[in-house]
Design goal:
The structure holds two protein chains of two kinds. By secondary structure, chain A is mainly alpha-helical. Helices cover about 80% and strands about 0% of the residues of chain A. Chain A is globular, with a radius of gyration of 24 Å. By secondary structure, chain B is mainly alpha-helical. Chain B contains eleven helices and no strands. The longest helix of chain B is centred in the C-terminal third of the chain and has 38 residues. The chains are: A mainly alpha, B mainly alpha. Chains A and B meet through α1, α4, α5, α8 and α9 of A and α1, α4, α5, α8 and α9 of B.
């Protein structure tokens, strides 16, 4: 590393810190007023270690992570399966339009109904998250299968492939990039939805990041803890996206090339 | 003409089948009215809520909030996004800051803001603002940045100065993608207002469905859900229409 490089990095880092520094100053000034709920910036770090290592926090992370993963696996499997079937079926459009009616109904609008059906429970959360993750996967799978050029199919058939082989060797690989895009969208949506769903579940939910947020905003207000949880959610969502992006690059390496070549 | 009529008739088959299946499921599977409302019950409850002017009140409240938060987000994100797209210096200053905040879902701000602002309209509007800000901003920066430099160089060769190039070349070229960001922002905004109202409001559609959940009235919850779906669908249609209307060349490009 040359000195020039280090100096350049130093300057860009300094530039990046200007705005956050201003925000901290304004924030600090705001806490000087009487009767504010804002904690001063200095207090943000003091409780971090003990909170992040606490049992309570670990239980919360595990509970939310579990709900997201169960729902994600269930809904993705169902979304891909139904998507492939409907994409291939002659009258798939009819079934598709049946499901499309539900699509504009936001996953969060299902929260009260899920609470009525399943009570305030893991099952309610998993239902809401499954609903949220199903549609991006399903819609993209159908679009992926239908978007495969008929020339590919005809070419495979001409070369003597049977229907089944065509599906496995031609249609699925060709639809894969769209399916993976759907899977990534779904994961992003799951993390946006879980907070609100768990918050609405409220104090009786007993575990989860949204439950902890409910506790530290409505029962005992603690701004530092709320911020730690917000950061945790964004880190988990971000990490999940990195994993999926990695899977995407591994499974569809040609896609990267296509994007770079554009 | 006849063909068009036929396609729109075909589009009604799905919804009609949906209602029939729903009706049969609640009628013959031993449905529990406390949990699974039949379509008939939902229509009846719609009449009740509509007749008391309750539904309209909640719709107007939610719409007012979502539009306020959304338009504030547009007013901040579009100019900021254009400046960030145009000038490297602005990007170096602001991009790291926004990149850190971006992965935090808009609704995750709700508990913190609830503690600071309390229950009410300011809270819902703020959540919508934060949620809509990022998709609009990111799209705006990306679309201004990705305008083909050749266009700018061509305009400059023809004697245009920087201001003219920005106004006449860069902004029109970026415009369709900015509109796409506005549409995505609206769908996020609509989802966020419902989420915010589930928890931190005493009016609005999100509050309404949560309220009737407490009273074990699934029919009224379903009326709210259908209304939320229809409004979300219509907002998307309006923005798509504007996109097609204001940037007609876009459809051709695709």
């Amino acid at each position: 590393m040359s000195t020039e490089f280090i100096v350049k990095r130093g300057i860009s880092l300094a530039k990046a810190l200007v705005v956050p520094l201003l925000v901290v100053i304004v924030w600090w000034a705001a806490t000087l007023r009487e009767g504010t709920f804002l904690s001063p910036p200095g207090e943000m770090l003091t409780g971090l270690g003990s909170f992040v290592t606490s049992q309570e926090f670990r239980v919360g992370v595990v509970a939310s992570l579990r709900r997201v993963l169960i729902a994600y696996v269930l809904a993705s499997a169902l979304g891909i399966l139904l998507g492939v079937m409907i994409g291939l079926a002659r009258h798939g459009d009819a079934v598709d339009s049946l499901l499309e009616i539900l699509r504009p109904i936001s996953p969060l609008a299902w929260v009260p109904m899920a609470l009525l059906w399943f009570g305030i429970s893991d099952a309610a959360m998993i239902f809401i998250l499954s609903y949220a993750t199903f549609f991006p996967v399903f819609v993209n799978t159908v679009a992926g299968i239908k978007g495969v050029s008929t020339v590919y199919k005809q070419a495979a058939l001409t070369l003597g492939a049977k229907g089944h082989t065509v599906t496995r060797e031609v249609l699925l690989p060709a639809a894969l990039p769209r399916i993976l895009t759907g899977l990534r969208l779904a994961m992003g949506l799951a993390w946006a939805v879980i907070v609100a769903a768990e918050l609405a579940g409220g104090y009786s939910l007993r575990a989860g990041l949204g439950y902890l947020m409910c506790r530290y905003s409505m029962i005992t207000f603690s701004m530092p803890r709320l911020v730690y949880i917000m950061v945790t959610i964004s880190v988990l969502g971000y990490a999940a996206d990195i994993v999926l992006r990695h899977v995407q690059n591994k499974m569809t390496p040609w896609r990267r090339g296509l994007e770079l070549g554009r | 003409m006849r063909k068009k009529w036929l396609t729109s008739a075909r589009q009604l088959i799905g919804p009609a089948m949906f209602v029939v299946i729903w009706y049969l499921a609640t009628a013959y599977l031993g449905g529990n009215e406390q949990k699974f409302p039949s379509p008939v019950a939902v229509v009846r409850d719609f009449g009740v809520l509509f007749g008391r002017n309750e539904l309209i009140q909640h719709i107007l409240t939610s719409m007012g909030r979502v539009l306020s938060g959304y338009f504030i987000a547009v007013a901040v994100a579009v100019p900021l996004g254009i400046v960030m797209g145009l000038y490297v210096a602005a990007r170096e200053l602001l991009e790291p800051f926004f990149e850190v905040l971006r992965p935090i879902p808009g609704l995750a701000w709700l508990p913190l803001l609830l503690g600071i602002l309390g229950i009410g309209t300011t809270l819902s509007v703020s959540v919508v603002f934060i949620a809509a800000l990022f998709p609009i901003l990111v799209n705006c920066v990306a679309s201004v940045k990705s305008v083909n430099r050749r266009y700018e160089q061509a305009a400059m060769t023809l004697g245009a100065n920087r201001g003219v190039v920005i106004r006449e070349v860069v902004l029109p070229a970026a415009f369709p993608d900015i509109l796409t960001g506005l549409r995505v922002g609206m769908s996020v905004a609509w989802m966020s207002i419902i989420g915010a109202e589930l928890i931190g409001a005493r009016q609005g559609l999100g509050f309404m469905i949560m309220w009737y959940q407490n009273w074990f009235e699934p029919g009224k919850v379903a009326v709210g859900m259908v209304t939320i779906g229809i409004i979300g669908f219509l907002l998307d249609k309006v923005l798509r229409y504007l996109e097609a209307r204001l940037a007609p060349w876009r459809a051709g490009l695709k």
